[in-house]
Amino acid sequence: MAGPGFSQDLRQRQTQSLVLAPQLRQSLKILQVAALDLRSVIQEELQANPMLEELPMDGPSLDGEPAEPSADDGLEPEEREPTAPGDVDDNPREPMDFSKEFEILTKLDEDWRTHLNQAGGQPYTGEDAERRQHFLDSLVAETSLQEHLMRQAKMSDLSGSVMAAMEHLVGSLDDRGFLTQSISDIALHALLPLDQVQAALRILKGFEPAGIAAGDLTECLLLQLQAKGRADSLAARIIRDHFNLLTRRRIPDIARKLGVHMDDVQEAIEEVGTLDPAPGRRFAEDTNRVVAPDVTVEEDRGEWKISLNSDYIPRLRISSTYKEMIAKGTLSRSERDYIRERMRSGKFLINSIEQRQQTIERITREIIRVQEEFFREGVAKLRPLTMTQIADAVGVHETTVSRAIANKFIQTPHGVFEMKFFFTPGYQSQGGESVSNTSVKEMIGELITLEDRSRPLSDQELVAKLQEKGIKIARRTVAKYREELGLLPSNLRRDYT
User: Which of 115, 226, 250, 370 sits in a 20 to 30 Å window from 292, CA-based?
Assistant: First the structure.
């Protein structure tokens, strides 16, 4: 009986692949880091690249230096005179000239095409550029709640319409992991059947972390007990039927209504204490840190002046010593190639820093255009704004806006705010004016502050007050905003004195 046969053959297959180069990762990192962290990132490259020189922040201007090196210096055109913030301007806080931004971006792409052609031996095509951009748009610094949930969704074998509904649901979650819109509103805005959105929501509520996608705190806690197999426990009954008594720790009343011993109620309350009231916050960034504004916005003679924080950005240039070494022609080929490679790397860093500053300023300028009433009058005038709007106006991808505003702060006439603070959904008033969620919360807080404490406003009365201002909002939403503001229900705000 003949055994199994084996054979070998030689086949040729052509494939294309693009690895995200370390310098491109560095460029994205520079775009994303906060002002306080930027200097340490740049210092790492300064220590690794001998071609870079750091100039004193208060040093003399370089305007007096020759604009072009001599024709016989041995350098390629792309290796000459890179610039950095402060290299040709004594005041690095002055706004940059955006008319040159696209020229800079184009030049940056050309440099990398040359580099990749020399390194890989194959032409750098337009398809390669698209794939590189895909890598750039896909890279993130940290896993967000939305990314964590969408990874689970992609492993759940969902149909196309349910996956589309899932994306809209995940995008509607706030930092706590709660839904910010009703299911009907999401279906309406997404142009999807309501039953598909409901199906996606049922699946989403089964994802980790437990308690995600709840409409309120009660549902969030019940979902967590359900995930533990404790849906029929005493703790679940207390949350479901006597949540108001629970928040006031009325243990005797709860025991009497449920017909159980007070010790059992106490144990159930201790179990509730182990649950997470905001399961999405474990993905949020730690805000207990020192921050320095990346941008300062001030009014000057009726105009808004933007000043970028360059205090933590070293003034860099390519060392003239190594240029002279190349120009003398005494180096070996390997030495010359090494110096050129280090010069390209240094120039990429310098251009990345400049691009970071320009991108932040362009986004800031567009935020001011949309949110000018906020800058003049305060939080109550904050308007709804999405990253897509800014991306379209600035001419970049939405993920670029997301990276650019990450960990960034703006100093405004009303205090220091995270840049992402200015991006918020909202409502349409009866007069056609857009009002942000943050502004609605501000109105609710103001109404409660001014109320008669002997007759505090109920959530339904707050709804009526907001309708008088032209804002149609559900009572459940008012209750949610009130809780987010840390304000008690009306029965607990009443002053009996």
Answer: 370
Q: Which amino acid is at 170?
A: V
For the stretch 30-61, pLDDT in tens is 888 777 778 888 887 787 888 888 877 655 43
Say whether both 441 and 483 belong to one domain. yes
Q: Which residue has the tokens 């070293």?
A: 314
pLDDT tens per residue across span 167-221: 888 888 888 889 888 888 888 877 888 999 999 999 999 998 999 999 889 999 9
Query: Is the bond into 489 cis (omega within 30 degrees of 0)?
Result: no
Helix (H) / strand (E) containing 409: strand 409-412
Distances (CA, A) of 228 to 208, 239, 277, 285: 12, 15, 15, 27
Give the residue carrying structure tokens 């006439």.
Answer: 413
Closest CA to 281 of 329, 224, 209, 358: 209
CA 323 to chain centre: 41
Q: Which helix (H) or strand (E) holds 169?
A: helix 160-171
> Count of CB atoms within 10 A of residue 183's CB?
17
Residue 487 located in a structural domain: yes
List the domain range (segments joined by +) for residue 475.
426-493
Domain count, the chain: 3
CATH for 459: 1.10.10.60
Domain-terminating residue out of 254, 283, 312: 283
